[in-house]
Specification:
Number of domains: 2
Distance between the termini: 50 Å
Helix content: 25-40%
CATH class of the largest domain: Alpha Beta
Strand order of the largest sheet: 3-2-1-4-16-17-18-19
Mean pLDDT: 98
CATH topology of the largest domain: TIM Barrel
CATH architecture of the largest domain: Alpha-Beta Barrel
Low-confidence stretches: none
Shape: globular
Bound molecules: N-carbamimidoyl-L-glutamic acid, zinc ion
């Protein structure tokens, strides 16, 4: 039964760019038909493209953007940033987390993301004891997503150790730590909340091979559904590779590939530091590389070997991670630029002669994003959820552009300023750059940010 109908002057459908496109949506938010012509329905000006998945978010880090950009007494690094981040993380109440997450999610929608993978590890109270409801903080992320109207794949984090080989967690990590049993209890609670909702999915996120041992992760994998997605940080920093080698004689990606039956069910976040062998092993495994190029640049992680990885069929997706930038366009731009700067080339990740680099990047991130969030999105076609973003073709940068040139100009130049409307499951949540609940959400966030400042 048709619930609503949208019309666009142009749209990037699964059959390519089409003019004068009508999309009908059923009562569950799924696309029922994609056709040309017609006069009824809501006409939305601009160029429709599939909305994109933001596969890696730590919502709470939105509170500290710009506050770690001052030189410390010694050499600054990922590890000094992490100390600062842990400090901020200790100050957040459940209400605060909900407020900052809702603000971040509205910003994501306005950037053209219709779904977020929330890698959530702030489980417990500031003193480390669990809340009366152990899943409290994850439930607050679900509420924030509901409020914003964004899809969510909730990825509660399994964090137990403070370093490779089962080192004890440090004081700054006390809110994160769970045993396998308590983690599975949280998972079961969230399963009930996520299972029955068309916009929600549940996966897990063993934080990293620093924070879980292969044995602990294997035990937890035994206790969850066999299709549930598994996201893990791996080989983000050179020091992490050195520490892994010192502990077990193997590199992190090497260890992951050896110990687990990794497949398209897995998302390897960052995977920055790999040998050629690891790169091809990861590409062939079907794992999706969850790349967060603006955060990786901000934290000084290094450059992902995207040219080699994608040439070997490796799948990628993008994430806003630390929220230093909430912009799908900037993530894709930074991904491409990192390769150009390293290799002294241009159009490094285009799929071939004549192919638009923006389109190549966008298609890859749509495919990988939908797969690793386990969400029926990423294409304007029958049977997918109606998650659509609309580029403003009247924005000065986009005037006169058509087809893939719209994507190239959005990604490499205009960015978020060209994002005009966003539809999630057939709901028109961003209309002409505004979200219906943005003022209320901002007010709560402002109150929280001023109090914690
Ligand atoms: C995170 N951030 O989970 O937010 C980590 C730092 C940790 C990045 N890996 C926390 N970029 O390593 O414990
Ligand atoms: Zn992360």
């Amino acid at each position: 039964m048709t619930q609503s109908k949208f019309r666009f002057a142009s749209a990037l459908t699964s059959d390519g760019w089409r003019q004068d496109v009508a999309v009908t949506v059923d009562h569950t938010g799924m696309i029922e038909s994609v056709a040309s012509g017609g006069r009824d329905g809501t006409l939305i000006a601009g160029a429709a493209i599939p909305a994109i998945a933001n596969v890696h978010s730590h919502a709470h880090q939105r509170m500290m953007i710009g506050l770690a950009e001052r030189a410390g007494p010694g050499a600054d690094s990922f590890w000094t940033w992490r100390e600062a981040m842990y400090g901020f993380a200790l100050t957040l109440s459940p209400d605060d987390l909900e407020a900052v997450a809702a603000q971040a999610y509205v910003e994501m929608l306005k950037a053209g993301y219709s779904c977020v993978g929330e890698f959530q590890y702030l489980h417990h109270q500031p003193d480390g004891s669990p809340y009366d409801e152990p899943a409290e903080m994850s439930l607050r992320c679900v509420s924030a997503a509901e409020r914003a109207g964004i899809g969510i794949t909730l990825l509660p984090t399994l964090y137990h150790y403070g370093g490779f080989g089962g080192q004890a967690a440090n004081g700054g990590q006390r809110r994160f730590v769970n045993t396998a049993d308590r983690f599975l209890e949280i998972y079961e609670t969230l399963n009930k909340v996520c299972g029955a909702n068309a916009l929600r999915r549940l996966g897990i996120s063993p934080h990293s091979l620093r924070a879980v041992t292969p044995e602990l992760l294997a035990a937890v994998l035994n206790g969850i559904e066999k299709t549930c997605r598994v996201h893990i940080h791996v080989a983000e920093q050179a020091r992490e590779v050195d520490e892994c080698l010192a502990w077990c004689g193997k590199r992190p990606v090497e260890l992951l590939l050896e110990k687990f039956d990794v497949s398209g069910r897995w998302c390897a976040i960052h995977a920055t530091h790999m040998t050629n062998e690891e790169t091809s092993g990861l590409a062939k495994s079907g794992v999706i590389a969850g790349l967060c190029p603006t955060t990786e640049a901000n934290l000084g992680d290094g450059i992902f070997p995207a040219v080699d990885f994608m040439k070997q069929g490796g799948a990628v997706a993008i994430g806003s991670d630390s929220q230093i930038s909430i912009s799908a366009a900037e993530e894709l731009r930074q991904l491409e630029y990192s390769q150009r700067l390293r290799d002294l080339t241009r159009n490094a990740l285009s799929t071939g002669a004549g192919a638009s680099t923006g389109r190549s990047l966008f298609d890859a991130a749509l495919r990988g994003g939908a797969a690793c969030l386990d969400q029926p999105m990423g294409a304007i076609s029958v049977g997918k959820r109606c998650d659509i973003a609309v580029l403003d073709d009247a924005h000065p940068a986009l005037i006169g552009r058509q087809g893939d040139a719209l994507l190239d100009t959005w990604i490499f130049s205009a960015g978020n300023a060209a994002m005009k409307d966003v539809i999630v499951a057939g709901r028109h949540v961003v209309k002409d750059r505004h979200h219906a609940d943005e003022a209320q959400i901002l007010m709560r966030f402002t109150e929280m940010a001023r109090r914690l400042a």
